Amino acid sequence: MSKLPHIGTTIFTVMSQMATECNAINLSQGFPNFPVDKQLTDIVARLATQNVHQYAPMSGYPPLLEKISNLTQQSYQRVVNPKEDILITAGATEGIFATIQALVNANEEVIILDPSYDCYEAPILLCNAKPIRISLNDDYTPNWEKINEVANEKTKLIITNNPHNPTGKTWTESDFIQLEKLADSFPNLIVLSDEVYEYITFEQPHISIHHRPKLWNRSITVSSFGKSFHITGWKIGYVIAPEHLMKEIKKVHQFLVFSVNSISQIAISEYLDIVDVYSLGNFYQQKRDFFRNLLKETKLQLLPCEGTYFQVASYAGISNEDDLTFTKRLVTEFGVAAIPISIFYANEKDAKCIRFCFAKDDSTLIEAAERLMKL
C-alpha cells in the first residue's frame, strides 16, 4: 500500500515534458536558461583537478559555513554560530524534508498556506502528521483570521514562504507582527520559513525571519544557492536554526544524504568572496519589467510581482476553461508552457490564473510574448 497514494508525477515534470514534446517555450519550471557566471564555472574547472572529491563534513564545508554566517550578519544583522546553527543541504527541498521529519511527530499538525509549493505536504504525511491547508486571501496575503482559527495545541509547525512561490507576493511588517502574536499564543509552535528567493525582491526590501529576534529560538530558515546563483541543478542550499533544533535536523540529514556534494560546496565558498548577492534583485527586476512590458500587448491581466522570478497572470478575459485545461492548450496550440495555479491548492481553487517563469534570456521572453499575443 502506498504511503502517498494521492501523489503522482508533479505538474512541473508534466508541463516540461509537454513543452519538449510540442517544441514549446518552457516558462513553466523555475529554472534559468542563461549561462552561469563564468567566474563560478572557472572556479569549478580549476577545482575539478584538485583533491576535493571525497566526503565533506556532515554539516558542511567549514569555510562555507563561516561565509554563510558572515553573509547572514551582513544581510540581516543576525549572528549565527557556523558550527552549530548552519547546515548545508542537498537543495532547499532536502532541508525542508529533513526539518519536518526531525521535528514533527505523529498526530501533530502543520499549517500550510495555499497556494503552496508541492514539497511541503509529503514529509508531513510521512510523519503520520496532519497538514492543515489554509488558503491565502485573494490578493495572496496571509489570512490571519483563518490561521488563528485553526492553530491549536497540536500545531507543531507553520510553514511560511516569503518571497512567495508561485505568486511573487512578499510579507509586510504587519504579517510578521501577526506571526509573532501567534507564536506567543502557542509556546510549542515552530516556524519553518522558506526564503529561497530572499535576494530576489524588487520595490520593497525583503523582510526575513532573520530580522525577528523574538522568533530566532523557534524558527528554521531555508535558503538556496541554486536560486541565488542560477545553479538549480547543483541542488545545494542551507538551513539556519538554533542549536537545539538543528541538533535534531542533523540527525535526519546524516542518514538522508550524510553530506552534500563536496566540489560544489568548495566552489560556492570561493565564489562568495567575489559575487555580489545584493545585485540579484536589480538583475531580476529588469527581467520582470521587460517581460511585463512585452505582455502588455496580450489579453492577459498581470498580477503584482514583488519578488521571485515568477509572474502570475489571469486569463479570465480570454477563456472560461479550468486552468489545467487552459495551460495544456497553451502548450499544444500556442507553444508556451506555464503552470496552473490551482495545483498549489489543496481544494484546487481555480481563479483562472497561471504562472510564468521569467528567468530566461531576452530572446526567449520575446518569442514567448509573440506567441502569447495570439491568444
Notable features of this structure?
Aspartate Aminotransferase, domain 2; Aspartate Aminotransferase, domain 1; alpha/beta; 7-stranded mixed sheet; 2 domains; 15% strand; 13 helices; 375 residues
How would you describe what is shown here?
The chain has 375 residues and is an alpha/beta fold. The chain has 2 domains: 11-30 and 278-372, Alpha-Beta Complex (Aspartate Aminotransferase, domain 1), CATH 3.90.1150; 39-271, Type I PLP-dependent aspartate aminotransferase-like (Major domain) (Aspartate Aminotransferase, domain 2, 3-Layer(aba) Sandwich). The chain is 38% helix and 15% strand. The chain is built from 13 helices and 13 strands. A 7-stranded mixed beta sheet has the order 2-8-7-6-5-3-4, sandwiched between helices. A 4-stranded antiparallel beta sheet has the order 9-10-13-12. Strands 1-11 form a two-stranded parallel ribbon. Helix 5 links the parallel strand 3 (109-114) and strand 4 (130-135). Helix 2 (38-47) crosses helix 10 and helix 3 crosses helix 10. The longest helix is centred in the C-terminal third of the chain and has 16 residues, at 280-295. It is globular. The chain starts with 10 loop residues before the first helix and ends with a helix. The model has no long low-confidence stretch (mean pLDDT 96). Its cofactor is pyridoxal 5'-phosphate. This is Methionine aminotransferase. Keywords: Aminotransferase, Pyridoxal phosphate, Transferase. Its EC number is 2.6.1.88. Residues 25-372 form the Aminotransferase class I/classII large domain.
